[in-house]
Write a structure and sequence with these properties.
The structure holds 2 protein chains of 2 kinds.
Chain A lengths: L1 H19 L4 E9 L7 H11 L9 E5 L4 E4 L5 E3 H15 L1 E2 L5 E2 L9 H4 L10 E3 L5 E9 L1
Chain B lengths: L3 H10 L2 E8 L7 H14 L4 E5 L7 H4 L7 E4 L2 E3 L2 E2 L2 E4 L1 H5 L8 H14 L5 E7 L6 H10 L4 E7 L3 H16 L4 E10 L9 H10 L4 E6 L4 H6 L8 H16 L7
The chains are: A alpha+beta, B alpha/beta.
Bound molecules: adenosine-5'-triphosphate, magnesium ion (MG) and zinc ion.
Chain lengths: ~150, ~260
């Protein structure tokens, strides 16, 4: 249920932004969530709805931007995507799993997506020296509202 | 705009009485042992204490605490730091085990920020932070967060001109970044048997010249390695522990935190 804490921080950041910029209400928000976390959009949306209740973001539309994860090996130049390393990432839950309140065992990347460097290697040459296009966990990309 | 992780970081740090940053700039001077020892000593004095390993590439806290493998728990409030002999601890080592952590640049900053944001320490009197050598992302990124809360930097050095020249650079950074400096700890200040290290006058002079208080002189303790091998508590290394207890007294005498 890490989604709740992520959403809570998004909502608080939004409300602070609105206050600092004199927004009367927030109508639309675009966030980007790193796909390596495998956070569930449905839970984020539900949490957002509940956590914004009674605030100026109550009626805001939440858009979750699913920018695809792409890797480039700095050693051999090979490019690959999330689907190619999903097994390694989820296998990490067996050895380094984090148990939540419901008993679900999540991989460490659920909480810290950039620990991907500890669990993934270049599928072609085996190097860990690769680049990730989007090395961020969670970002607010755009906020729309009325003054 | 303020980023979501900063909101969480703020919430965590508001619950901490004082953040004690243990760093040096120089590698291998005993930062991790002193940070872990200090956390255990503050706990022994009755304070609620956390030990935060921010050495992303070379975490030492799991080894020092004798943790081989641990199952972390997560809640709606983030990651629960496991309590090890009464000290709450968090380390990248708990998340990746023995895997290497070859992070660079923005990805490393992200891990530092996520760790600070997602570790749910709860109420603490002291959070002792074990910093890595150097002044890279781990240090610069975390100082930016920690300096907004009650904090003090404990600078660790050994009695060597090589250590002190690096430490001097760190001090300049700390002053520029407006970090409050608790003082200097001279590690391995005495030789086995108790004779002073020949470099001791250099460090004493350094502390005067830099107007930084010498908080403690920690002896070279030959039993430390044995204690680590046996995964025994640091209090078993008698000479080391005695001076760490003194250090913890000096530090806690000056803050308003009371055991509770
Ligand atoms: N007072 C001491 N007496 C004897 N050995 C010590 C003492 N302090 C540190 N050591 C030893 O020195 C080595 C380095 O200690 P430690 O790992 O705590 O240093 P560090 O500054 O954290 O290193 P790094 O820069 O890699 O993080 C270890 O082997 C440790 O056991
Ligand atoms: Mg260390
Ligand atoms: Zn490759």
């Amino acid at each position: 249920m890490h989604e709740w804490s992520v959403t809570q921080s998004i909502v608080e950041a939004l409300l602070r932004f609105a206050e600092e910029n004199g927004l009367r209400n927030i109508t639309r928000v675009v966030i980007e969530v790193n796909q390596l976390s495998q956070l569930e959009n449905d839970i984020i949306k539900e949490a957002f709805q509940i956590l914004t209740r009674g605030t100026i973001a109550e009626d805001a539309e939440l858009v979750i931007d699913e920018a695809p994860v792409s890797f480039v090996c700095r050693n051999c130049g090979y490019r690959w995507g999330l689907e190619d390393v999903l097994r390694e990432i989820n296998d990490a839950a067996k050895t380094h799993g984090i148990v939540d309140e419901e008993g679900t065992v999540d991989p460490p990347l659920h909480y810290l997506p950039m620990l991907v460097y500890s669990f993934v290697k270049c599928p072609r040459c085996g190097s860990r020296d690769f680049e990730i296009e989007n090395p961020y966990s969670v970002r607010i990309k755009n906020v729309e509202g009325e003054k | 705009m303020v980023e979501p992780w900063e909101i969480l970081a703020e919430r965590r740090m508001k619950e901490v009485g004082k953040i004690l940053l243990v760093g040096s700039g120089k590698g291998g001077v005993g930062k991790s042992l002193i940070a872990a020892g200090l956390a255990e000593a503050l706990k022994a004095r009755g304070f609620r204490t956390g030990l935060f390993d921010l050495d992303i590439h070379g975490p030492s806290v799991p080894e020092i605490l004798g943790v081989e493998k641990i199952e972390l728990r997560g809640t709606r409030e983030g990651l629960e730091p496991p309590s090890i002999n009464g000290v709450k601890a968090m380390s990248v080592g708990f998340l990746v085990g023995k895997s290497p952590v070859p992070l660079r640049g923005a990805a490393k900053s992200e891990v530092v920020e996520d760790l600070i944001a997602n570790t749910n320490w709860g109420h603490l009197d002291y959070l002792v932070v074990d910093l890595p050598p150097g002044t890279g992302e781990e240090v610069v990124d975390s100082l930016r967060v920690f300096r907004r809360f009650p904090h003090g930097f404990i600078v660790v050095a050994t009695p060597s001109v090589l250590a002190l020249s690096v430490v001097e650079r760190l001090l300049r950074l700390l002053i520029d970044e407006r970090i409050s400096i608790e003082g200097l700890v001279a590690n391995m200040a005495t030789l086995p048997g108790g004779a002073p290290h020949p470099g001791l006058p250099v460090i004493e002079e350094f502390s005067k010249k830099q107007h930084i208080r010498l908080l403690a002189k920690i002896p070279f303790d030959l039993t430390l390695e044995e204690v680590l091998m046996k995964k025994a508590p640091l209090s078993d290394a008698k000479a080391f522990w005695e001076s760490i207890l003194e250090l913890s007294e000096t530090i806690s005498a000056e803050t308003s935190a009371h055991p509770g």
